Amino acid sequence: MIYFDNAATTKVSKEVLDSFTKALEIYYFNPSSLYKDGIATLEMESKAKKQIANCFNDPSFEVIFTSGATESNNLAIKGVCYRYRRNGNHLITTKIEHPSVLNVFRQLEKEGFEVTYLDVDNKGHVNLEQLQKVIDDQTILVSIMFVNNETGTIQDLSKINSIVRKYPKIIFHSDVTQGFGKIPFDYSFLDLISYSGHKINGFKQSGALLKKQNIDLVPLILGGGQQNNLRSGTQDVPREIALSKATRLAKENVESHYAYVKTLKKHLIEKLKSMDSIIINSNDEDSPYIVSFGINKKASVVVEALSKKGIYLSTKSACSSKKEASSYVLEAYNLDKKITENSLRVSFSYQNTIEEIDTFISELQTILKTIK
Ligand code: PMP
User: Fold this and answer.
1) Which of 336, 342, 331, 347 is nearest to 371 (CA)?
2) CB within 6 Å of ligand 1 — which residues?
3) Going by CA atoms, what residue is nearest to atom 7 of ligand 1?
4) Phi and psi of 88, rounded to 5°?
5) Rounded distance, CA 154 to CA 156, Å?
6) Distances (CA, A) of 343 to 29, 63, 273, 291, 310
7) What pLDDT is attached to residue 309?
8) pTM
9) pLDDT per residue over 212-266, tens digit each?
10) Are 206 and 239 in contact (CB under 8 A)?
């Protein structure tokens, strides 16, 4: 099997699994318990949080464990809006965010917030002039993703930050799910950061929100007040330990994996360029982990045919590939309808090889020739 769908999810690594099973044996106590082993379990949670904060280059980040980036995005956005509503009513995001961001903003609009969805250019970059024009003293939150999950487009968060920081009241959030552990980058200037364990060889339903200490959030989940009242419910400390392990490994290897995956992308792009009727949507400066390209056949039929050959990839993002035919992300890039409806997404991991790409290309050529 050739697995080219690592933006959808990744396989849990042996190291992460080992740290989890070991922790399950030792730290199965309720971290709110007052006896020795309960306290030790709580200490392990604090250690895991510290390790994660360090991986994001600022030990003062408060880490809130969540069920993944979807929950982290919900907590960050709703948490800020409900807490700071008195400061202003205006929110800024982009047209190409993940649904776990976009759908939260759509709900907030129904609740009376005013939301600007920034345009992107035909390479997917946020329009900074538009940002400068719409940002004002009524704006309380800017939420812009780092790496797009369908195309690999990287936003210039540092430049955006320099615009946002002219307004000290504004909180800057980023969903870095497809960037952390993939693109070497220092995220520590952000106020709120969402990421997910299962994109970095950790578990599904496992992620975190990192928050600067001076920011207060209205929690989504109320109960016993665990995790500093920000996310109630008995913590799954072994799962938290596994996430901190996955996070540390991703951080330690980010440079070498990035360099290697760049060679994979280069090879794939060269091969695709030599084929007729392929239009490459991704650009050189994008994440090497994601390559999107348009084909002249029905994308879902090609995905199915490739799957029969043991090659797994997506038409766009896994979250929306079963829904509408056209990609709202590619539509925002103003691409031709044929492409927004018929694109494939190859998403790499450091475990993929050049040989796998060659096999894929040869199967793809045959399939494109044989299907109608
Ligand atoms: N944001 C982005 C950019 C993603 O790619 C994903 C996963 N598809 C998510 C958020 C949601 O993450 P999770 O599955 O952990 O909820």
Assistant:
1) 342
2) 68-70, 98, 100, 145, 149, 175, 177-178, 196, 198, 207, 317, 319
3) 8
4) 160, 170
5) 7
6) 48, 37, 15, 10, 19
7) 98
8) 0.97
9) 999 999 999 999 999 999 999 999 999 999 999 999 999 999 999 999 999 999 9
10) yes
Residue 196, H or E segment: strand 192-196
Q: Which of 250, 272, 302 is the last residue of a domain?
A: 250
Residue 302, domain CATH:
3.90.1150.10
By the 10 Å C-beta count (0-12 exposed, 13-18 middle, 19+ buried), 227 is classed as buried
Neighbours of 195 (CB within 10 A): 31
Q: Nearest to residue 95, comparing CAs of 85, 105, 107?
A: 105
Model pLDDT for residues 66-76, shown as the tens digit of each residue: 999 999 999 99
DSSP 8-class letter at 161 = H
- Structural domains in the chain (count): 2
What is the CATH classification number for the domain harbouring 40? 3.40.640.10
Task: Please indicate, yes or no, whether residues 134 and 225 belong to a single structural domain of this protein.
Answer: yes
Inter-helix orientation angle 299-308/354-370, to 10°: 120
Residue pair 293/280 in contact (Cβ under 8 Å)? The answer is yes
Alpha-carbon distance values, 337 to 129, 154, 169, 331 (Å): 27, 23, 40, 8
Place of tokens 């299962």: 198
Catalytic residue among 318, 319, 361, 368: 319
Is 82 in contact with 114 (CB distance < 8 Å)?
no
Task: State which of 250, 270, 301 marks the end of a domain.
Answer: 250
Which tokens sit at 5?
């769908």
Which of these ranges, 267-271, 319-323, 354-358, has the smallest mean pLDDT?
319-323
Instruction: Calculate how far, in angstroms, residue 365's C-alpha sits from the geometric centre of ligand 1.
Output: 31
Interatomic CA distance for residues 280 and 286, integer angstroms:
12
Report CA(71)–ligand 1 centroid distance (Å).
Answer: 9
Q: Considering only CA atoms, which of 61, 347, 83, 310 is closest in space to residue 193?
A: 61
81 is catalytic: no
Bridge partners, 343 (sequence order) = 294
Question: Mean pLDDT, the chain, as a whole number?
Answer: 97
Is the domain of 223 the same as that of 281? Answer: no
